[in-house]
Amino acid sequence: MFKFTKFRKLLITMSSAVVLGLLLNHSAYAATYTIISGDSLYKIGNLFRTNSSAIMRDNNLSSARIYPGQVINVPGEAYTIKSGDTLSQIAKRYGLSLYTLRRGNNKWDDIIYPGQKLYLPGIVSTPQIAQAVIPYTASDLDLLARLIRSEAENQPYNAKVAVGAVVVNRVQSSEWPNTIRGVIYQVSGGYYQFTPVLNGTINKPATDVDIKAAYDALYGADPTNGAMFYFDDSATNQWLWSKPVAARIDRMVFVY
Question: How high is the mean pLDDT of the chain?
């Protein structure tokens, strides 16, 4: 990760109303999960996008032995059901399979009601910090969120944040333009850096989830560990594949 003094000060502020709006209708805290017969820490780790070691650490477990009925802490946010919600809509909104949402909540019927809380397995918001890691305007936030929708519309939430993080990483690097707009609309050697700019899909409006992912990236979340590029794992570009892999999230590959 590059560090530059030019971004030490945040150039804009957001009102508390806007911040609360971006947090949507869910709050971040550790979810709980009740062990069922046949479970293992490995299976639970896959379900909640973590690993056995982290589960053992977070629950002060001295061994990997678990038993049915045991309740453990796992990564996840609580989502508050709104009128008109369905389980399938919630799962799709956050890039989860319906099975994952059901299993994470031991919820095998479709009966839900406004005010009820469900856990979103593996979805964890970045804790708010004092200021964004780069300066941005409301227009920049919207543009970044639209890029995220175009590039990761059907991907998990962490992949959405990761797309935003790549843009943030480029802004922080001296090798790229020093603004969000400059990075996203850059044309180098006759090539657009981001396909949605070329094909126009970046003009689709962002969803609330895309905006939240952009906000998380702007405030320091980086699931890519500093990546500068990303591509779908079906890509055949050998130049991209030759770069060191920083992270893989579902079908997306992030490289330095």
Answer: 86
